[in-house]
């Protein structure tokens, strides 16, 4: 039952990544095929874990060694895959960071409030900037590459970046700056922190929780493997003692 619950959680997390349209995950999954692939893998692993939990229960109740062996093998494969994925993410973190920087940079450069085709993606990025209280990826200067703001001589700025109370009711699009002539991002009433720093700070603050969940899942899987092996041995011993002596 525990593994079926675990599988349901993993499955639900994968579905959430694909369905989410209002957070930083939406920015990533819309722009990065690798995250979509990861979501499908999570869905597959979740479904497989639920199936293995059912087979493990069936094998334990009916003392079927074949099902318990299959249960052990699948758990071992899942655990090895999780460890491998964690190692890949750790050693490729700089590459992933560069890819993420390119994705967000392209989004900011082409941001257009009148573009209905990209409204969900742009809305997700506005949501990120509001929630994290940040502006751009490395800072507000990133928005100086936006084509619309360039055409307006930087006399407007993204409303979702604003740190002014007068813009608190506007969460998307551009707000006008009260200046004559031209301006720069340094003149905007926006947050100084870039979203990259905000995301990194969030990860550091929640690192203990993330590691705790991952460790807990790994421990549960190891206990399941140990339990399945023990049951297999007990079933073998019981069957052997029932054989009549000659």
Automatic annotation (TrEMBL):
<feature type="transmembrane region" description="Helical">
    <location>
        <begin position="40"/>
        <end position="61"/>
    </location>
</feature>
<keyword id="KW-0812">Transmembrane</keyword>
<protein>
    <recommendedName>
        <fullName>Tetraspanin</fullName>
    </recommendedName>
</protein>
<feature type="transmembrane region" description="Helical">
    <location>
        <begin position="209"/>
        <end position="231"/>
    </location>
</feature>
<dbReference type="InterPro" id="IPR000301">
    <property type="entry name" value="Tetraspanin_animals"/>
</dbReference>
<dbReference type="InterPro" id="IPR018499">
    <property type="entry name" value="Tetraspanin/Peripherin"/>
</dbReference>
<comment type="similarity">
    <text>Belongs to the tetraspanin (TM4SF) family.</text>
</comment>
<dbReference type="Pfam" id="PF00335">
    <property type="entry name" value="Tetraspanin"/>
</dbReference>
<keyword id="KW-0472">Membrane</keyword>
<dbReference type="InterPro" id="IPR008952">
    <property type="entry name" value="Tetraspanin_EC2_sf"/>
</dbReference>
<feature type="transmembrane region" description="Helical">
    <location>
        <begin position="6"/>
        <end position="28"/>
    </location>
</feature>
<dbReference type="GO" id="GO:0005886">
    <property type="term" value="C:plasma membrane"/>
</dbReference>
<feature type="transmembrane region" description="Helical">
    <location>
        <begin position="67"/>
        <end position="91"/>
    </location>
</feature>
<keyword id="KW-1133">Transmembrane helix</keyword>
<dbReference type="InterPro" id="IPR018503">
    <property type="entry name" value="Tetraspanin_CS"/>
</dbReference>
